[in-house]
Amino acid sequence: MVLIVTYALGLLFSLKTHSEFFGAAEHGEHEEERWPMSLALATLAAVTVLVALTSEIFVESVQQAATTLGLSPAFVGFIVVAIVGAAAEMVAAFSAARKNRLDLSVGIALGSASQIALFVAPVLVLLSYVLGPSPMDLTFWPGAVAMMLIASMTAALVTNAGRSAWFVGFLVTVVYLIFALTLYLLPPRVS
After folding, report:
1. Alpha-helix residue ranges (DSSP H) falling in the chain
2. Burial 109-120 (b: 16+ CB within 10 A, else e)
3. CA distance between the termini of the chain
4. Cα angle for residues 114, 12, 121 (degrees, 5° grid)
5. Could you tell me the pTM of the whole model?
6. Where are the domains of the chain?
7. Half-sphere exposure of 81 toward its Cβ, with a 13 Å CA cutoff?
8. pLDDT tens digits for 29-61?
């Protein structure tokens, strides 16, 4: 519940009370035409259904591939599902970065990660008490906690500079690659 309240207060902070901190600077873009609310909601509903169907197919395929390739559940969850699940955000972040909109690019990447950590995961845990065969928890093995700490520190160091270069992006990718290799070569022990 604390994580969900934190996420809600973060949304309030960024969208209402301090939105001026998060507004992008003008880059010579033209005002885009807005969709009518009914069309936007209908499109959102249709895309949500398509994503749900695609997710079902994806999960089944990943389970079979993981079994065939001998991949640990940790590797599949932290690497495969994370990359495929965040594909849309990555495309948008890369597009913003190519247009020299580093603020938007970093905002997309960190916003997506925050949404998963502070909202989606806790909601799934709470729903598991009602819908699931057995309740889930947010208990992580020490290696996962260390990786999350390193990832958080890396994100803080990269974003605090206020500017970046291609080599910084490469170094962040290397951190993720090290996590992937660690999870592949030294999977967590199942107790």
Report:
1. 2-12, 37-69, 73-75, 81-85, 87-98, 102-115, 121-128, 142-160, 166-185
2. bebbbeeebbbe
3. 27
4. 30
5. 0.67
6. 42-71, 72-191
7. 19
8. 556 678 899 999 999 999 989 988 888 888 888
